[in-house]
Amino acid sequence: MKNWKSSLLGIALLGLSAGTIAAPQELDRIVTIVNDSVILQSDVDAMLKTVRMNAAGQNQPLPPDDVLVNQIMEKLVMETLQLQQAEQFGIRIDDNRLDQAINQMAAEQQMTVGQLQQMLAANGISFSIFREQMRRDMTASEARTIQVRRRINILPQEVETLAGQLSQHEQQGVRYNISHIQLRVEEGASAVERDAVANEAQQLVNQLKDGADFANLAYSYSKGPKALQGGEWGWMRKEEMPTIFADQIQSQGTGAIVGPFRSGVGYHILKINQVDGLETVSVTEVNARHILVKTSVILSDEGAKEQLEQARRAILAGERSFADAAQALSADPGSAANGGELGWQTPDLYVPEFKEKVETLPEGMISEPFKTVHGWHIVEVLDRRDVDRTDAAVKNRAYRILFSRKFNEEAQAWLQELRAGAFIEQPERADDQG
Predict the structure, then answer these.
(1) Where would one find the signal peptide in this protein (predicted)?
(2) Around Cβ 117, how many Cβ atoms within 10 Å?
(3) Phi, psi of 343 (to 5 degrees)
(4) 86 and 140 in contact (C-beta within 8 Å)?
């Protein structure tokens, strides 16, 4: 695709030079004007060759040429409109990105780029023209994505509803081994008494999440029917559970604590001991603490590293606690106030160097000083735990499904609006005129 004015100038120059050549040559002609751009016959011919090559490779029959050319013309018009939008946004696909896309395309076809070039040449397609077609496709796609994303609004209720439907479908045939604690609220209890039971239930949940033994707490506190069995109900499908249990269990995995939640008799806490028949998602969280020293015009890399080495030696020798050193030295105010502790986090949240340390460092060991984009650190891993993320994974999947649905709908609407507001004209061919 070429700028209209520069294309017309190029065609005029070709016309001038044609007079000096003995044999007449067919000039590239404008077939469609789209706002201030033009589509040339060579653009149509190049895409026609590509479509025929792809169809032949897939043994796909094509419609008659007149129908196929109309389809190609419509694609080129819509592509041109999107490229004009891309120009407004300043979108450019550089050669590195283009080469990566072509390499990936060749790999998906199980061939090298050299073999791809040979295949194109065998079908009469110039590799340079093919590259520019790819660049235009990528540029148009990026412009479309930017514009359509702005039009998409996904409400939390939509995600919850679809996640519930996905979970319900996946729950068919799934069995759970569950345990239960029930804290009773006596009939006629005052608001203060009800609040006290609610607080007690939350405290039990906090203890369980910190690693307390569920059966011991059930023996001590539960008023439920399975209290003397440590709260264990055994294996059940959701349709075999009390409705109040089934309503609370969505797509949680092994080890999940559910609750506290309220019923007419009091507050309940569930633990999912095991799951059979449900694909679960688990992640490892790390509880770590660190000390950060930043370099400056008066503190070099060597100076920052030396400060941390001195602090580390003092901590290991028992002359100073990690918390005291963090409060005195760390340039991370959020964690320094908490003795350097970062709390439970998944390592993926950290920058690569820090992530590598907290993933590989043995618990209780203080690292040697190391550098990240933030400065120099020492870090200690206090503990690790596996956490079920099945419920979050289902919600993420629900969000992606909703986004895909809405993106396709909004993309079509945006393209229609773009075309409706465009100036599109097909100049008459000389041999069509009277």
Answers:
(1) 1-22
(2) 17
(3) 80, 180
(4) yes
Q: Reply yes or no on whether the pLDDT at 157 is more than 80.
A: yes
CA dist 195 and 373 (Å) reads 48
Phi, psi of 342 (to 5 degrees): -100, -10
d(CA 266, CA 205): 15
Please indicate, yes or no, whether the overall pTM of this predicted structure exceeds 0.70: no
- Residue 224 per-residue DSSP state: S
Give the length of the chain: 434
Return the structure tokens found at 373: 């984009």
How many whole angstroms from its chain centre is CA 258? 27
For residues 274 and 278, give the distance between their C-alpha atoms in angstroms, rounded to a whole number: 10
- Positive or negative torsion for Cα 210, 212, 213, 216: negative
Q: What is the pLDDT of residues 89-113, one digit of tens each?
A: 888 899 999 999 999 989 988 999 9
- Cβ atoms 48, 70 nearer than 8 A: no
CA distance 213 to 271: 11
**pLDDT tens string 116-131:** 999 888 888 889 888 9
Q: How many CB atoms lie within 10 A of CB 224?
A: 21
